Every structure is written in C-alpha cells, then in structure tokens.
C-alpha cells in the first residue's frame, strides 16, 4: 500500500492506492478534507499526516488511539474532524465504508482478480496468502506474551472462550483440543443476552480468552469491562495493531490476517491456536498425556458401541 497527499487548489485530497501483485495500480477512492491546508493548525496537520499514513487502521481506531499516535489531546482530535468537514470520527469511518473500501464482496473481488485467468493456480495462490499471513504472524507475535498466554491457560480455574463470526470456528477447535487435556473450557455465546448467562459465572481465577478481529464489538467491550470488575485475566487474540483493547487486556497476541481491505484468512489464528495447545500440553506434562491415554483407552473399549 502507498499513500499520496496532494495539494490541489489549496485543498487536501487523499488518494488511496492499492497495488496488485502484478504491479498495476488502481485508484480505489479519493477523499477531500474540506478545508484549505493553510488554515490547519500544527496539531491538526499532525493528525492529518497520521490519518493519511495509517488509513488502513483508521476504521479500527478511536479518537484516543489517534490522539496517542499523533501526540495530541483527544479534544484536539475531536476538533480536527469538524475542521476538515466531518461531524466526528464515526462520520469519517462511515464515508470510508460507503466508498466500499472494505466489504466482503470487495475482499473477495481482490483475491478473484489474482486468479481471473483460466490457467490460474487458485490453490497455489491461497497457499501463498496463508504462507504470507503465517510469516507475518511469526514476526508479530511477542514470544513473551505467547509464553504468558500458555501459563495463563494452564493456571486458569475455568477458561471462558469467546469468538464471533469466523473466529467462532477457531474457538470451537481450541475448546475441543484443550478439553482433551483437562482444561475446563466454557464456550460463550456469540452475542445477545445469552452471552451474559455464562459471563455471570466468570470471576477471580478464571480466564477470558477473546478473539477480536477487524474492530471492537459491543460484545468485546462488555467482556473486557466485566473481566476488570470480576477480577478475571484476559487474553486477546487480534489482528489490530492499534486498539484500546490492547491496553485493556492482560495478554495480547497480535497476528497477521492480511491487508485491511483484502481477503482475511483464518490460517494464522488456527496456527496460533494449535501452538498454544501444544504449549499447554507440554507445560502440563504427564498429567496431559494421561488424559489423552485415558481417552484412547475409552475409544478402544467402546469402539463397537460408538464407531468412529
């Protein structure tokens, strides 16, 4: 990705350009900050520079995130949006959304563009995407945080697992594998008041393990707030580089799922999950192996009653 900041007729215009794998450049959208550049204060110019250089992350940011990165106050950020022609950050995000910068159809269209010719190797292309995400995740995940997550899961009185959307399948896989080695796992509802039915039981000594991709959802907000009040430890797996959720979580595992507006693979979350399971199994040692051996013995004993 690259961004160009042009001055046309004394107005600030943002051109967001996406470069395909073939090196062709496509103008996706253009935005006009509805104010003359010369009228912006130095603080507002600093914010504008951050917004332009970090457009991929802006849909996931709060005013507080932007203020921290630009080195200004939250109040200054609030005034900036009005100064450049938007009611607030939400209005700017809405314009990004309406411009079609990130929709399921657009994400799929980008990957289809790479395999549009008849001889395209679709499998090879998708393996390439997965490989890139895995490589990025390997570099991005802090190994101290990874080790802390393993220790946290191992010591949890109960492990409450939350994952909505595509991450629900990853949470289900994690619950399946950890339960086999004796971790007391509770799967939480994806949304609505049913989420509260399990959340109410989480307290001191318990761990809330959260998958939070793309943006902060109301469910994640509620879970993080409850964890703080109830004394639970939180582990967050996210693809966000900038989010206030990071500061609110005890353990952060940041992964790479691809460009913000591109195809988001679940390969990296699954790989991270598998690695955590192996780590917890190793830490539990003989206790975990005995659980697995007992499971194998039960399978043999009841093979005729419960065929595979």
Automatic annotation (TrEMBL):
Residues covered by the SIS domain: 149-286
Residues annotated as domain HTH rpiR-type: 27-103
GO molecular function: carbohydrate derivative binding; DNA binding; DNA-binding transcription factor activity
Any single GO BP term: carbohydrate derivative metabolic process
Record-linked InterPro entries: Homeodomain-like_sf (IPR009057), HTH_RpiR (IPR000281), RpiR-like (IPR047640), RpiR-like_SIS (IPR035472), SIS_dom (IPR001347), SIS_dom_sf (IPR046348), WH-like_DNA-bd_sf (IPR036388)
Keywords in alphabetical order: DNA-binding, Transcription, Transcription regulation
Signal peptide (UniProt feature, chain positions): none
Pfam families: HTH_6, SIS
Family annotation (PANTHER family): GLUCOKINASE (PTHR30514)
Protein name: MurR/RpiR family transcriptional regulator
Record organism: Paenibacillus nanensis
Record lineage: Bacteria, Bacillati, Bacillota, Bacilli, Bacillales
